[in-house]
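Example 9 (inverse folding). The structure is encoded as follows.
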């Protein structure tokens, strides 16, 4: 089987968020979970996507699952974008692709310029009291905190400014107490003329990821959060990890469109 490493939410290698992508050979059930976890651990990127084709005539075209090196996740943006990129560039699929996932049917559309738009459910935000101790664990005082619902599973933490987000050096072990997956730290962009409206960083200790380079699923929460504050449905977010990447968002009620590019950097044979 061919396995690929794809950098997502970037137009150049060695940036954005790398994902493993494995297209399984036939329309059949997934291999057992232990094998999927072992492959993801071997790839050792934030997520590895596994997909197989589904019979024609159903509500979806491909079945899709995502695994970190430590656990399966319910929703992953960058690995979905990476999978759509592989399907398009290899000729395995044409036009919009419907993926059957743990978060329902997700649609990915590859445009003529090679960019990919994902149609994801908008995260339901609920304002919550700032949890005691979260400021010490994060290393900064929150302005507000929001629960992002079951699909995303994070605590969204608004900070004072972009500089504070960029300077975070959190206590990862302590952060794991505050949500199912981890923490999304965000602030308004200091200078929107640089091409982005807000900045974020994502720390996911509970699924084995210290800092995720670029997180599509987090932007299903960031989009409604910042759209409400900035008064626009279309925004661009900069996720300011060491690799960095930009995600274009378009809020459409209970759906959020996430757009970006991807590039395949490694292709090889899986013998296991």
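The amino acid assigned to each position is listed next.
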């Amino acid at each position: 089987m061919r396995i690929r490493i794809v950098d997502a939410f970037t137009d150049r290698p060695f940036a954005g968020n790398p994902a493993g992508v494995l297209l399984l050979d036939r329309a059949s059930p997934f291999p057992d979970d232990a094998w999927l976890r072992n492959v993801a651990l071997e790839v050792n990127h934030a997520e590895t996507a596994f997909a197989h084709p589904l019979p024609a005539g159903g509500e979806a075209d491909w079945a899709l699952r995502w695994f970190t090196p430590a656990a399966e996740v319910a929703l992953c943006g960058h690995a979905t974008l990476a999978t759509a990129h592989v399907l398009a560039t290899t000729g395995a699929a044409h036009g919009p692709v419907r993926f059957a996932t743990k978060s329902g049917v997700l649609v990915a559309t590859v445009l003529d310029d090679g960019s990919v738009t994902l149609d994801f459910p908008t995260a339901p935000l609920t304002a919550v009291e700032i949890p005691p101790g979260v400021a010490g664990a994060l290393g900064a005082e929150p302005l507000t905190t929001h629960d992002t619902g079951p699909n995303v599973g994070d605590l969204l933490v608004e900070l004072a400014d972009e500089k504070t987000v960029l300077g975070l050096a959190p206590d990862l072990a302590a952060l794991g107490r505050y949500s199912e997956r981890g923490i999304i730290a965000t602030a308004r962009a200091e200078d929107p003329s640089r091409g982005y409206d807000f900045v974020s960083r994502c720390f996911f200790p509970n699924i084995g990821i210290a800092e995720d380079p670029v997180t599509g699923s987090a932007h299903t929460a960031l989009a409604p959060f910042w759209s409400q504050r900035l008064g626009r449905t279309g925004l661009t977010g900069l996720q300011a990890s060491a690799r960095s990447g930009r995600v274009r968002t378009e809020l459409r009620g209970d759906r959020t469109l996430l757009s970006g590019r991807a590039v395949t950097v490694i292709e090889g044979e899986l013998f296991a």
